[in-house]
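Tokens as discussed.
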């Protein structure tokens, strides 16, 4: 009988016998399957139990902080109007002013003037030159005035601004800021003035002995018109009292100059040969 083909192949290339399988370590496997996962689960749970209260406290604190700190409200129109003319900069303006009288508020001819001015609200410095050659400048404490018709130069202390109605002509910035700080300024909305969109801001006192009206550009909030009234100005159906004074100032230009503007624009020009004279300071209106 021929040997089996499989036996011949085995004889030609004998294979190594596989090593005898060792008995599995059932205890070790049980330890890996049962004990280790359970220990890890306990650790994770312990950490979760420790962290959960801390996370809850943190969340409560965060909610409390959000509740206690209110969202910042945008500035009001009045705040923006004051900020527009009180930046740390020099402003330049060209203004025509006059006084009015009578029920129809006719312009008193000899009170009309056109002036060019520069103002630094942060320092209180103002410098103005009128078309007739008159000039004045102040540092907020002392004022120097030059009068062209008699070629004279005077210096005096500035009167104290004792209330919102106290103002110097040309100081529309001071009038606006004083009225705002006194809580007397209110916004009366938008309107059109000589084809231009403006916002009307009004300040007055309860006794109605003075009123100030500011028309400011609707976008830039820079001055367009300023009207100052003193006396019993609201008397329906009656004549405007003789003692009433109405000053109207129209700004052809009011602009913020670049930061590098030469501060010499705030100084008086030299007036060689001008004679010095004594001049009583103007009396500021009494506080309302």
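Sequence:
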């Amino acid at each position: 009988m021929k040997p089996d083909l499989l036996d011949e192949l085995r004889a030609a290339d004998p294979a190594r016998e596989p090593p005898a399988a060792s008995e599995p370590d059932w205890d070790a496997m049980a330890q890996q399957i049962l004990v280790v996962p359970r220990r890890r689960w306990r650790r994770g749970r312990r950490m979760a139990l420790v962290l959960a209260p801390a996370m809850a406290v943190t969340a409560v604190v965060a909610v409390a902080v959000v509740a206690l700190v209110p969202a910042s409200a945008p500035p009001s129109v009045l705040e923006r109007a004051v900020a527009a003319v009180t930046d740390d900069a020099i402003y330049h303006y060209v203004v025509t002013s006059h006084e009015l009288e009578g029920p129809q508020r006719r312009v008193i001819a000899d009170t009309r003037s056109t002036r060019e001015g520069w103002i630094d609200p942060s320092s209180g410095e103002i410098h103005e030159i009128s078309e007739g050659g008159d000039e004045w400048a102040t540092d907020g404490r002392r004022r120097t005035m030059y009068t062209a018709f008699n070629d004279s130069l005077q210096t005096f202390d500035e009167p104290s601004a004792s209330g919102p109605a106290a103002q110097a002509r040309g100081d529309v910035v001071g009038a606006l800021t004083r009225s705002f700080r006194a809580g007397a300024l209110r916004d009366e909305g938008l309107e059109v003035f000589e084809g231009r969109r403006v916002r009307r801001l009004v300040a007055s006192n309860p006794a109605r002995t003075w009123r100030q009206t500011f028309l400011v550009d609707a976008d830039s909030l820079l001055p367009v018109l300023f009207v100052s009234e003193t006396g019993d100005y609201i008397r329906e159906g009656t004549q405007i009292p003789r003692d009433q004074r109405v000053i109207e100032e129209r700004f052809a230009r009011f602009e913020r100059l670049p930061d590098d503007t030469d501060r010499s624009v705030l100084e008086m020009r030299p007036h060689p040969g001008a004679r010095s004279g004594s001049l009583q300071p103007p009396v500021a209106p009494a506080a309302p």
